[in-house]
Design brief:
Blueprint lengths: L1 H6 L4 E13 L4 E5 L7 E6 L28 E12 L1 H10 L3 H30 L10 H5 L20 H9 L1 H5 L2 E2 L5 E2 L3 E6 L15 H11 L3 H7 L11
C-alpha cells in the first residue's frame, strides 16, 4: 500500500513559506512589516508570556527572540504551512467502502508522518538555503531529532504559543489558502488534516518552552492587543487559565 501511494503519486503535498521584516514591541507582540519597504506595518503576531513561577531564569515570551524596536535593528520572522494530505480523503474513502479499516488508518498515519517530514525538510532548507543563516550546518539524523540546529519552528496551539487564533493571522498575511489550498476550519483546524504550520525564529537563543498557566491581567491585556472580546480569549485559552472564567 505504501509503495503504491508513493509510486503512483496518489497523495499530493504542497507548501507555502514567507519571510517578513519585524521587531518586537513593549507589549510582547511582534510587529511585522511589509516585505517590500520593511517599514509599513503589515500585521501583528501576539505572544503570551510565562507567569507561573517554576524557578526558571526568566519568564519567556516568543517575542523575546525578536530584536526590539528600540534597538533600531530590523529582524526577520518566517511563516510556513505545508500539507501531505491532498487527495487523502478520496484514497481513504475507497478503503472505507471496502470495509478495510486497517489501510484507512494506515493512509492517515502515513500522510501525518509525511507532513511532519516535509515540515522538517523545509526547516532544514530554510536554515541552510532560503534564509541561509546556517549555511554550513552539517548534522546527522540524531542531531536533527534532538534539535541541535539553530532556530525553532513553533506552531500555534502548542505550549510556546497556545493560541490557535494566531493561525488566522498567518493565513491572511501569507494568503495560505489562495496559494496552497490548505484551509482553516471554524475550529481553526487545518484541512487537509495532515498539515503542519508554524513560525521560523533564527535567533541562536530561541528555544521551545511552555507558557503554562496565565493570569487574568495578561488575558485582559491580550484581549486589548488582539482587539478580541475577553470571553473569546478565555474560550480559546481555557486550558491554560489560572482562574475560572465567568459564564
Amino acid at each position: 500500500m505504501l509503495n503504491e501511494i508513493i509510486e503512483k503519486k496518489v497523495i499530493e503535498a504542497r507548501a507555502v513559506v514567507a519571510f517578513y521584516p519585524c521587531n518586537s514591541n513593549d507589549d510582547d507582540d511582534i510587529e511585522i512589516y511589509d516585505e517590500n519597504d520593511g517599514k509599513t506595518l503589515k500585521g501583528k503576531w501576539c505572544t503570551l508570556r510565562q507567569q507561573l513561577d517554576k524557578d526558571q531564569d526568566a519568564f519567556v515570551a516568543m517575542s523575546d527572540f525578536i530584536a526590539p524596536k528600540k534597538s533600531e535593528k530590523t529582524d526577520y520572522i518566517g511563516f510556513f504551512a505545508c500539507s501531505a494530505g491532498f487527495n487523502q480523503d478520496a484514497v481513504c474513502q475507497k478503503y472505507v467502502d471496502d470495509g478495510d479499516d486497517y489501510n484507512n488508518m494506515m493512509v492517515k498515519t502515513l500522510t501525518d508522518r509525511l507532513a511532519e517530514a516535509l515540515a522538517e525538510k523545509l526547516h532544514e532548507d530554510i536554515r541552510k538555503d532560503m534564509w541561509g543563516y546556517a549555511p554550513d550546518e552539517d548534522l546527522n539524523h540524531a542531531d536533527m531529532l534532538n534539535v541541535k540546529y539553530q532556530g525553532i519552528r513553533p506552531a500555534p496551539g502548542y505550549p510556546s504559543q497556545p493560541d490557535h487564533t494566531e493561525k488566522a493571522t498567518m493565513w491572511k498575511m501569507m494568503n495560505v489558502f489562495e496559494d496552497s489550498g490548505i484551509e482553516l476550519t471554524e475550529s481553526l483546524a487545518m484541512n487537509p488534516a495532515s498539515s503542519v504550520c508554524g513560525q521560523y525564529f533564527a535567533n541562536p537563543h530561541a528555544h521551545y518552552f511552555a507558557v503554562d498557566e496565565i493570569c487574568k491581567d495578561q488575558v485582559e491585556s491580550y484581549s486589548q492587543r488582539k482587539e478580541m472580546p475577553k470571553k473569546d480569549i478565555e474560550k480559546w485559552l481555557s486550558p491554560i487559565l489560572s482562574y475560572e472564567a465567568e459564564e
